[in-house]
Fold each of these.
Amino acid sequence: MKLYNTVISGNCYKIRLLLSFLNLDYEKVSINLGDQEQKTEHFLKLNPLGQIPVLEDQGRHIHDSQAILCYLARTYDAHQLWFPQETIAMTHVLEWLFFANQRIASTLSAARAFHLIKKPNIDIENATAMSHVSLAVVNQHLKTRNWLVGESATIADIACYPYIALAHQGKIELDLYPDVQAWLTRFQQLPRFIELDE
Amino acid sequence: MKLYNTVISGNCYKIRLLLSFLNLDYEKVSINLGDQEQKTEHFLKLNPLGQIPVLEDQGRHIHDSQAILCYLARTYDAHQLWFPQETIAMTHVLEWLFFANQRIASTLSAARAFHLIKKPNIDIENATAMSHVSLAVVNQHLKTRNWLVGESATIADIACYPYIALAHQGKIELDLYPDVQAWLTRFQQLPRFIELDE
């Protein structure tokens, strides 16, 4: 199994987290975003969208960090705890995956990209304001729960963790969200948790 | 079954399409976005994100148009054709759902919202340019296929159809994308296809 990835990307970090939680061996292939390596003809064959991460497994290439989480959990988690397959639980996990894919990407992730790598075409005022709207929703949800869905950590938590844990790099403070902070701490205590740069 | 929805929304249209394809009865509850009815205390109890569509079924409320498509197909499509459950096919369907959820939302859907309802905070130049990048990816994919995944229409096609079919409302022309145009025509010929305002 190969993961085309870069250390700094929160989306790639999601996949490294799940691979670690599932205790799976894989090879990291480093993609240099500064050199636009994800836009080369070779890479576009792996993912026509020109984005990392891409997972290579059994000759297949899978893109989109959330889709890769679903694929890995369905394929390698024998107990189906990380991606529950009962329809209601699965639907709620998917709601949070879409939240991570669209809401977190356009708010917390965008704010981080603006401040950390000076990414252009970002309305930082709007991204910052909407980051707080997103965090308030997550905080309210976690007031009565330990995990986003069900009684144990799922790929919903993995999909939402990186850019919330890295919020400070986008100059978003978490002081107002104690339930989010407690959830981050719980997440960091999961067996085989790894840091962004591990 | 109740669908909280508004006619003009492409995201709500996705759900109406699948409900029609599955030949399911439901009640439409019209939400007035002009009055910000989706941000009222009552509505936020149905969906804390303050967005339509929301599906009410068996006492549950499900939000996010893509998650609702997954829920409906898993629950009511006995043949599991609309949302295949074999892992590889499911993963590819999910890749396109995430594409619709994030890429199409931030490009074709954003351009339509800018021109049609004068939605603020949209960088129309970037949304237009990125719409063409998205369309080129879909067109290339459809050069050798009738449907986005597999041999028949799935919720991947439903998730991508509305904002591509409505591209002209965002001043995006489809002249350069003949394979996309042929796919739109095929989609419109599906049994029980309905128009946006039906």
Amino acid sequence: MDAAEFRRRGREMVDYVADYLENIEQRPVYPDVEPGYLRSLIPTEAPMEPENYDDIIRDVERVIMPGVTHWHSPYFYAYYPAASSYPAMLADMLCGAIGCIGFSWAASPACTELETVMLDWFGKMLQLPECFIAGTHGHGGGVIQGTASEATLMSLLAARCKAVRWVQASNPKKSEAEIFSKLVAYTSEQAHSSVERAALIGGVMMRKVPTDNCFAVRGDILKEMVEKDKAAGLIPFYFCATLGTTPSCGFDSITELGPICNGENMWMHIDAAYAGSAFICPEFRPLLNGVEFADSFNLNPHKWLLVNFDCSTMWVKNRADIIGAFKMEPLYLKHENQESGRHWQIPLGRRFRSLKMWFVFRMYGLKGLQAHIRKQVALAKEFESLVRADKRFEICAEVILGLVCFRLKGSNELNQKLLKMITKSREIHLVPCQLSGRFVLRFAICARATESRHIQQAWQHITQLTFELLQEPNH
Amino acid sequence: MDAAEFRRRGREMVDYVADYLENIEQRPVYPDVEPGYLRSLIPTEAPMEPENYDDIIRDVERVIMPGVTHWHSPYFYAYYPAASSYPAMLADMLCGAIGCIGFSWAASPACTELETVMLDWFGKMLQLPECFIAGTHGHGGGVIQGTASEATLMSLLAARCKAVRWVQASNPKKSEAEIFSKLVAYTSEQAHSSVERAALIGGVMMRKVPTDNCFAVRGDILKEMVEKDKAAGLIPFYFCATLGTTPSCGFDSITELGPICNGENMWMHIDAAYAGSAFICPEFRPLLNGVEFADSFNLNPHKWLLVNFDCSTMWVKNRADIIGAFKMEPLYLKHENQESGRHWQIPLGRRFRSLKMWFVFRMYGLKGLQAHIRKQVALAKEFESLVRADKRFEICAEVILGLVCFRLKGSNELNQKLLKMITKSREIHLVPCQLSGRFVLRFAICARATESRHIQQAWQHITQLTFELLQEPNH
């Protein structure tokens, strides 16, 4: 395919993308396929000779679309949102064309530098303390990771490295392995599975801290666990706080937890993957109070801030902590301005992802982004009101942002049945969670295209299925 | 920006991309900027109000392009190639529109399933042993990682997990920490820095194995090191072989190393990040002989197979090894068909990257991809001949694929000066490496647009600078 054909096919693809998103409501949000459906639809081997582009595009509808869960359908209320916007898609096209691999400053200076400045822009939008801003002379700053999992892992590894150095400063003979075996990390029992996974990868113990009745970790309980571990000769070194947990969008009490971590010389990382985007609104910013105690902070604009996946922004107070954890400079990566490079992540190569932030921030403006957050929170509140007005249902966690956790009053089995009916009907898509042993339905406002009428329609659908369910003879 | 505006702006962006790539020769391949150049060109904060799209596009030329290292310029000969093709870019546009986060089968069945089948297609193109093919009943199979660094890390972690289980099977009382402290991994002294980094992350020892005069690790030397470590009470558990090392494109002798690893119960991972793509050509496939001994194998189509970054393909013999290393299934990820999901990587979320492979494989066909590899190898051979014909120069490593390592006969200092002149002139871009203590220039065929005339021109430029250098009074 030459440039001329790309111009033609590119235009067609732009229209395909616009058509897809404009008419997404007409597609069933959740696919009706069984595992293995795709293999039988395409050949078992790659073609020897080039194929016709038209055939490939036809196969997108024949092979791919029947198996797609449409995350941007206004009937999609599962998990948390995946961000999507036209400016981000345009920036990604540019990113693909430039196609640089930004593993060092010299590999493409603009890639490294725009990222640093975008993280400063964003940090200011979030009113982060000055220590997290790189500026021209700061010690802190931000970086784009692929996912929150990677940010958590990087913070845990940096904390581990710092803890080893700290222990060895007073006990130079202690081996790394010996120290590793004493290190203890902590996180909420409500934390995302990737936090536990980070500890597994890093080869350190991870304790799950119980939460209060708002599904939040409080200071006293962490303090108690830390004391107990220290008394047993262990070395508490890391706490991962969550702002906006995956099950219920709960908020750990970082104003209580931060001083404890600081006092105990423990690294505090804040995972605000979903909720973090809301902190650009003054009315939600108090939820981030306490960030000044953190060593690192992460949120995913690719969840809720209209920047297409992947774009997970992470700030650290001391760049040296995270760079120092793994610095290695073979000759083929050395260049005259290497200090400006950044090996802050697991993968060495990286795309020019900050272009997406730049396009989105400028095309929406801070006000436009705030409006997006506020609209989705209002939709969640609208859904909450509908649930609260129906005595058969209960709300299971405070609705603070765009997630509503609710259930039918009654057994877990009943709620499992209801979810099964919802999934089977394929009119809307949502997933469950478990809160205090109870099976709960999660209703997350996801798609940019979701409007009040969709919320009303979803609720009508849920109550209709509920009616059918409760009609069954055994109820 | 609504769909109508996206249609218009998208068309403009398609043209911008085509123009950029068609006229890339006219841009200086390496930017003339100093660290920090970008910050002064844009505001210090994000705008409050939405901006005009035309202003943003104007800023792409004003702010971004002056700081871009143009990886797809035919004057770019640095590092290894970053793949780029029009079909891959079209697929990426589609991927952005679908915008699913494929962390489980249910999250988007097509995303998981196309990936599995594409890895089978590709495995067959590479003539991988049957055990690496998933098919409908296989125990092996492939996955797309972001980068080779992630593939290496995953293989090391899986190997670590397996080693712990194996040791604990006969010594149930041994703690994980105790075992970790005895584990030893091995790789070539020529291996990529990310291999050493994987061991640092995993908290295990890593030994660098010396290479022979072709910069290859041979069986006898690994055997010797393993025996020595075992005698010292350590546990050799992992060897990362490289096919196509970063400095010189050297090939470890996997036919010798494989049986040793198998005999010692050590996991053998093969990192063929760059060279691997060439194995789709029958004449280069013998370089992969010995893969049957490997537990895992990785190469980057995003380097040399026209699939834009990121797309790093990894196969394992036993899926259970790599899935089992970190399986965790919280309720919000559970679904009825969860066995078909895949948590084979560090990040939980992932884009629909297999679309790029599907588009590229079909639009080029196996023959078209082979032609691409062969053309670039021929260009490297052409450059090699030019170097060999000039008695002032020497070739420093056998030219097998698309990389030529060469230097001026004489001191390292002389060669450093020559590279400095090349970099300063900005007509071509290349980076150095160190081979047996000698400072060597690497000339890698990178851009898809590179033709014979560019090679001739590059050589003329190098010899012109050499002439100037050797004219200097102190030579």
